[in-house]
Write a structure and sequence with these properties.
binds NADPH dihydro-nicotinamide-adenine-dinucleotide phosphate; 2 domains; alpha/beta; 15 helices; Aldehyde Dehydrogenase, Chain A, domain 1; 7-stranded mixed sheet; 23 strands; 6-stranded mixed sheet; single chain; Aldehyde Dehydrogenase, Chain A, domain 2
Length: 480
């Protein structure tokens, strides 16, 4: 069976421990490859090579940085089929989705930040008769990038690309649950001629490799996407070391449906916003609030549409919902469905594990589940489930829905469905979220700030936000 390798100092290498972890295919429940079980010694060696490479990479011309990042993008695109199959096998998402979203987006991330090298500028502040300030933006040095399993290459590249574009060298760790496309990326970087040590990818467990990156005294910035509890732990280690931190954390996003929405279109879009990627997207809307006058009509149309979603083998084009990422995560989701029933919820559709025949007989599948009748303050409505489970809640008016929408500790994203422009603006302003979509979901412009408020994170990614995060400003004043 294939053994994945770390990517350190431009080479594919074994972990120092020579130990490996099992890598499961969620659709079959079987081990199909082995992942390096790395530790702080591998992180140290990755750091040493990154530090060494920084001397040259930080001084490489902006044009050359752009050209090499473009080559990395081209390299992924050339191997599209391989990346798509690998992402789907590792994560359980339908190949169709990986082909439409994940892998093209990783290509775009590299292209976007390659071109950003040509346009990023720093400020100058003129003081008439006194002098002028100009701001230098230096790369930080060696930075750490840690990403989760739900959108593996998509989020991994979203961090790595701006870090490299700004002249930093990187020690990166993908989720140990979905390491494969990061491994393919290391091959692409070698083929593209990325200088040795500029990017280092260390595979392994979060509490070993991830923690060693965070604890390393000379890795000066950490860009992390993952769960809120892990984020809290990382912050508690990194803050006393005065590291720069970008934390993109969990969500429990509200979907707010007003009676004057475009009914058919809203039903269709809200189903997508609820169940894409098995509901394992931090931006999925998991609490659906529906205005009283259309509640019953919306519920019937929504449930009818959810029942048409076909769950099955991610390799087959006909299925829109694939496997849950791991056995442990499947059990967590099922435990929340049980909790919802204990809390008085009524299951309108789904609610169970799905047993398939053939190749996927031992895979981890859950039916898309819709629940109603729960109090907005109950645990099911307050805690992140991160799976194909949504709740429906009736509201009477704008004030009430805002109280319910804002009642959670999270504040990542929200969607608002209405044809009343003034109301859309009003609610968007008052809803506690870093990202709001009106009559749409997951429309992304890579230039916009991306991130959450409250327990959903600290800082923003995207556009110049990421370029600023990965650089240190230094103000210089010249007297006139
Ligand atoms: P985790 O927090 O469990 O893991 C995220 C990453 O951190 C993984 O690479 C993990 O490694 C690593 N890690 C775990 N423990 C530590 C540690 N002590 N120190 C350093 N690194 C560590 O999240 P999940 O992978 O389960 O991802 C799901 C979560 O991510 C959800 O809460 C979701 O909402 C959130 N998310 C947020 C997004 C956003 O943009 N705000 C986008 C996507 C997801 P390993 O997996 O190997 O243990």
């Amino acid at each position: 069976m294939e053994q994945l390798k770390n990517y350190i100092n431009g080479e594919l290498v074994e972990p120092v421990s020579k130990k490996y972890l099992d890598n499961y295919e969620p659709a079959t429940g079987e081990v199909y490859s082995f992942i390096p079980d790395s530790d702080e010694r591998d992180v140290q060696s990755a750091f040493d090579s990154a530090k060494n490479a920084f001397e040259t990479w930080s001084k490489t011309s902006l044009e050359n940085r752009m050209l090499i990042l473009m080559k990395v993008a081209d390299g992924i695109e050339k191997r599209m089929d391989e990346f798509v199959a690998a992402e789907s096998k590792d994560n359980g998402k339908p190949q169709k989705l990986a082909r439409a979203v994940d892998i093209p987006r990783a290509v775009s991330n590299f292209r976007f930040y390659a071109s950003a090298t040509q346009h990023f500028a720093s400020e100058s502040h003129h003081m008439p008769g006194v002098g002028i300030n100009y701001t230098l933006r230096h790369p930080i040095g060696v930075v750490g990038c840690i990403s989760p399993w739900n959108l593996p290459l998509y989020l991994f590249s979203w961090k790595i690309a701006p870090a490299l574009a700004t002249g930093n060298c990187v020690v990166a760790k993908p989720s140990e649950i979905t390491p494969y496309t990061a491994y393919l990326l290391s091959q692409v970087c070698i083929e593209a001629g990325l200088p040795k040590g500029v990017l280092n990818i260390v595979h392994g467990l979060g509490n070993k490799v991830g923690q060693a990156i965070v604890e390393h005294e000379n890795i000066k910035a950490i860009s992390f996407t993952g769960g809120t509890e892990t984020g809290k732990r990382i912050a508690s280690i990194a803050a006393p070391m005065f590291k720069k931190l970008s934390l993109e954390l969990g969500g429990k996003n509200p979907t707010i449906v007003f009676a004057d929405c475009d009914f058919e279109e809203t039903v269709k879009q809200v189903v997508t916003a609820s169940f894409s990627n098995q509901g394992e997207i931090c931006l999925c809307g998991s609490r659906i609030f529906i205005e009283k006058s259309i509640y019953e009509k919306f519920k019937a149309a929504f449930v009818a549409r959810v029942k048409t979603l076909k769950v099955g083998d991610p390799n087959e084009e006909s299925y829109v919902i694939g496997a849950i990422v791991s056995l442990q995560h499947k059990q967590k989701i099922l435990s929340y469905i049980k909790l919802a029933q204990e809390e008085g919820g009524e299951i309108l559709c789904g609610g169970s594990e799905l047993k398939l025949a053939g190749r996927c007989a031992n895979g981890y599948f859950i039916e898309p589940t819709v629940i109603e009748g729960l109090d907005y303050k109950c645990r099911t409505n307050q805690e992140e489930i991160f799976g194909p489970v949504v709740t429906l809640t009736l509201f009477e008016n704008e004030e009430e829905v805002l109280i319910m929408a804002n009642s959670v500790k999270y504040g990542l994203s929200a969607t608002i469905w209405t044809n009343d422009l003034k109301r859309a603006h009003r609610v968007a302003e008052k809803v506690e979220a870093g990202i709001v979509w009106i009559n749409s979901w997951l429309v992304r412009d890579l230039r916009t700030p991306f991130g959450g408020v409250k327990a959903s994170g600290v800082g923003r990614e995207g556009g110049w936000e990421a370029m600023r995060f990965f650089t240190e400003p230094k103000n210089v004043f010249i007297k006139s």
